[in-house]
Amino acid sequence: MKDGYRLTKEDFNYIYGKVPRLNVELVIRGDKGVLLTKRTIEPCKGLWHLPGGTVYYGDSFMDTVKRIAKRELDISVKEAEMIGYIEYSEHVKSGYGDPRGLSFLITDYRGEIVPNDESDGYEWFNVLPENMHPHQGEFLLSKNLIEKSTQQIDFKA
């Protein structure tokens, strides 16, 4: 993104308090399952979630995927494919804005995963963890990217 288009935190909050915010969500699936990080920041602090972030003005989706992967996981994405979208109705109800996430399956990356301070580590999951972000959990289940635990109940947004 061009520096001349960066928003102040106040401008960002003002604008995205009135319109939907476009994000990318990173779905990294490997031999050990789907990579999830545990959030240390709001919204959804303490929940397992897909790494992701805001699409900036002038950035392509692939530029955003690469930027978020580098910032949140310290990896370099080589290949990614959009596989769907996630709408976050619970965020609207709870006052956390109106994010809309385009989900990208990361099919090739380089580097060792090192999460930044927005998460308390990462794990690979084949079965949906109990304390998972509900909208992202629904998405992973609907795409058959992760299995549902027999002890879990259905998510209802």
Question: Mind sketching the topology for me?
Answer:
Layout: H1 9-16, E1 21-30, E2 33-39, E3 48-49, E4 52-54, H2 61-73, E5 76-87, H3 89-93, E6 99-110, E7 119-125, H4 134-142
Parallel strand pairs: 1-6
Antiparallel strand pairs: 1-2, 1-4, 2-3, 2-7, 5-6
Characterise this structure.
Strands 1, 2, 3, 4, 5, 6 and 7 form a seven-stranded mixed β-sheet that branches. The chain is globular and about 40 Å long. It is an alpha+beta fold and 157 residues long. Strand 2 and strand 3 (48-49) form a beta hairpin. The longest helix is centred in the middle third of the chain and has 13 residues, at 61-73. The model has no long low-confidence stretch (mean pLDDT 89). The protein has helices at residues 9-16, 61-73, 89-93, 134-142; strands spanning 21-30, 33-39, 48-49, 52-54, 76-87, 99-110, 119-125. It starts with 8 loop residues before the first helix and ends in a 15-residue tail after the last helix. It contains four helices and seven strands. Helix content is 22%, strand content 34%.
